[in-house]
UniProtKB/TrEMBL annotation:
Residues 240-272 are annotated as: Disordered. Residues 153-233 form the GTPase Der C-terminal KH-domain-like domain. Residues 253-272 have a biased composition (Basic and acidic residues). SUPFAM superfamilies: P-loop containing nucleoside triphosphate hydrolases (SSF52540). It comes from the Eukaryota. InterPro entries: KH_dom-like, KH_dom-like_a/b, P-loop_NTPase. The lineage of its organism: Eukaryota, Viridiplantae, Streptophyta, Embryophyta, Tracheophyta. Coiled coil: none annotated. It holds the Pfam family KH_dom-like. Signal peptide: none annotated. It comes from Vicia faba (Broad bean). This is GTPase Der C-terminal KH-domain-like domain-containing protein.
Length: 272
């Protein structure tokens, strides 16, 4: 796997398989406790998280994700990691007596996952069989694709064309004078993509506005499964030199944000 990934990246990539993330109890000691701690450290070091689910367990439990798996996914989002889901052991659901279960999983799993993890839209779900070797290449390609999206950098000119031509034309604030107006939109960081909206007026962007901008970025720039962060800054009145103080402030913030320069990429493949 490592050699195949190296064909697409200049730096070396690592795939880290962890045993899962169990809920720690007072009775857990020794190797079990250390395994949980190591799994959490691996997740914090990773760039891309592949959450592996068991198709047979999904059918028996009649739900896509157990509590421990939800914890992993939500923590990955909080930490700003790229995320996709793998449903393994699909070979167990083939055959006349299990065909309905196979079709049901293919239809409902992605919808259920999106309901459980509403913070991030467009999470891709891959259905594979490790026993038969089906889907292995697809998984590797998805690692690369998710990593490239996670590293996306969009130019300020492109973002502001997008803002004027697409976003402002389809959102309700364009016709309301009292609503905040985004005058400038720029990306200050990748991994994950982080943006700043410069807003003119006394009002600030609402949570609904931020969700709309986030969804628009994901849809228009193909960033599904990637956490997107949007900050906002008020545009202050220009001083005597004609320079806005708020833009200088954001420039300094952007420089601090860009300090994430880790060169090695990890994939944590989590099996809960």
């Amino acid at each position: 796997m490592q050699s195949e990934l190296s064909l697409n990246f200049k730096e070396e990539q690592y795939l880290v398989d962890i045993a899962g993330w169990l809920q720690r109890t007072k009775l857990e000691k020794g190797a079990s406790s250390l395994s949980i701690m190591q799994s959490r450290k691996s997740l914090l070091r990773a760039h891309i998280i592949a959450l592996v689910l068991d198709a047979d367990e999904i059918v028996n439990a009649k739900r896509s994700m157990k509590h421990a798996e939800v914890v992993i996914a939500r923590r990955a989002v909080e930490e700003g990691r790229g995320l996709f889901v793998i449903v393994n052991k699909m070979d167990l659901l083939r055959g006349k007596d299990k065909s309905s279960s196979y079709e049901q999983i293919m239809e409902v799993v992605q919808q259920e996952i999106q309901t459980v993890i509403p913070q991030i839209t467009g999470i891709l779900v891959l259905f594979i069989s490790a026993l038969e070797g089906r889907g292995r290449t697809t998984v590797l390609h998805q690692v690369i694709d998710t990593y490239e999206k996670w590293c996306t950098r969009l130019s300020t000119a492109r973002l502001n064309r997008w803002l004027l031509q697409k976003v402002m034309s389809r959102h309700s604030w364009k016709d309301q004078a009292a609503q905040p107006k985004i005058k400038y939109f720029t990306q200050v960081k990748a991994r994950p993509p982080t943006f700043v909206a410069f807003v003119r007026g006394k009002a600030r962007l609402s949570d609904t506005d931020i969700r709309f901008l986030t969804k628009s970025l994901k849809d228009d720039f193909d960033l599904g499964g990637i956490p997107i962060r949007i900050m906002q800054r008020a545009i202050a009145k220009k001083d005597g030199s004609g320079t806005s103080k708020s833009i200088h402030s954001v420039g300094r913030v952007a420089e601090r944000i860009k300090s994430d320069k880790r060169e090695r990429g990890d994939l944590v493949e989590s099996k809960a």
